[in-house]
Each structure stands twice: as C-alpha cells, then as structure tokens.
C-alpha cells in the first residue's frame, strides 16, 4: 500500500479526462452496465482488504495481465477453438475486451447481489459453447479442467503483471491472491484452480506437451497492438503493453509458442512500463469500479491508496 502523501493529485481537467477514459474502457456498446455504488453497504464476494482489490484497481496490470492470460488460453487447443470461434475478438475486439473487463470488475468489486447473477449468466453461456478442435477432439466450454486452466492463466496474468510492472508482491501476498480466487473460480465451474503460487507453477509445468503454437496467437497479438482500444492520446502505449504481456510469459512457454525476443519488450521500454504501472497505482480514478465500490461500503476514496 502507498502512504497517503504518495497519491498523485492531477489538475482538474486531466483528472476528469482520465476518469472518463477509464469509464469508457469498461462500458460496452451493447449489454448491461453496472452501478458499483449500489446497494449501499452490501459486501462483495471478496473483501476490500484483499490482495485482489489492490491488484485489480491498477489499469496497467489489468491490460498487461489480461493479454498474457489470453495468449496462454489460446495456446491450449480446445480453449483456443472455443474462444476464437465463439467470441467477437476478430470482429469487435474493443467490445469483447470491454465485456470481459467489466465481468472481471463485477466479480471482484460488485455487490454479491450483482456479481452472483452475472456469474450465473456466464456459466449458462458456457454451457452452450461446444465443438471440435482442428485435431478432431470434442470440447465444451463448461469442462471443469478447461475452466481451471482459464482461471489459472487469468490469475497468473494479473498477479504477475502487478508484481512485475507495478509493485512487487511477496510470496505470501501471491499465495493470498490465489486463495482469494478459489471461491470465485468455483462459482465459474473451475473446480481445480491453483490455491498458491506453487500449485500454479505445478499446473503450468503439467501443460508441457499440451500447449501448441498457432497462427491465432499471432493474429491476436496483432489485433491487440493495432486495434484502437486505448484513447487516442494513450494509443502509443498499447503495442508496448502487449509486448510487456509476452515478456512475462514463462520462457519455456514462449519457446513452445514461437514467441521470440522480437515479441517482447525492448530494453528501454521495461523502465517505461514499470513507471507507467507505478504512477497509475497512485492516481485515484473516481469513476473506477474499485473507487465506486469503496464508496458503497462507506470507505474513503483513498482507501486502496493508503
């Protein structure tokens, strides 16, 4: 946590612009929106003093971690087929990312009466997604093993991105982050999600021989680097943050997927990403789900920053 005096106070016009930009990134053009300030006083699935509340408030960790998670999901043939054939990533990547990001925010910060029905809706949607991979292997998006892989890649992505590019997490904090995610994973149908960083590492090691390279991964990286998801003044950062996501994927996985040094960060960019992560962790976004949820629980806007 940061001491109070480390909070960055921005000029009013810049603060309002950032608030609006953050809100727009989590507002899909289609679908339901959520009010994180209601119902007043109602707790969420995770408590505000959790490691998860601290990690998910940071926009750099969310973007970098989310991209890394999808790369690892696309490395698994059944997950790749389900994601690529049954989602709008190729047609409308911005809307797909907005809906995915909003679902994550509701899960972590939303009141239980808001989060549980949303999660149940996702589970029902997964029940209708099934097919056959290019190798002729049948799959279902409701498969508990596949869901555990998806949950593990997401947890790794967000925790690793925060620890690497924002503020280091201790081994105890990393384990707490994975423990906090287990009940959430159960709600989504991921029945064997890692409960510690050691369990996460063991799961990753067990995937040797199951992950495979695919042109889809490189198509995804191109879409994430070239599609105008970020506001125009910040778009220059987008390709760099995609490279930051590749950089933090374990070396053996990068080699397996054909991701070379060219796909990772340039040496001068590492400092820039870390600087962006650290600075963004000290700017309070008043319209963000994290801040709005603090207000719902009667906590000050500075709670996660102090």
Summarize the structure.
This protein has 306 residues and is mostly helical. Helices cover 59% and strands 2% of the residues.
Number of strands: 2
What would you report as the Rg, rounded to the nearest angstrom? Answer: 18 Å
**Beta content:** under 5%
Helical run tally: 14
How would you classify the quaternary structure?
single chain
Span between termini: 6 Å
- The SSE order reads HHHHHHEEHHHHHHHH
What number is the mean pLDDT? 93
Walk me through this protein's architecture.
This protein is globular. The longest helix is centred in the middle third of the chain and has 22 residues, at 144-165. It has a two-stranded antiparallel sheet. Strand 1 (130-132) and strand 2 form a beta hairpin. Helix 7 runs antiparallel to helix 8. The mean pLDDT is 93. The relative contact order is 0.19. It is mostly helical. The chain contains 14 helices and two strands; from the N terminus they run ααααααββαααααααα. It has one domain (4-305).
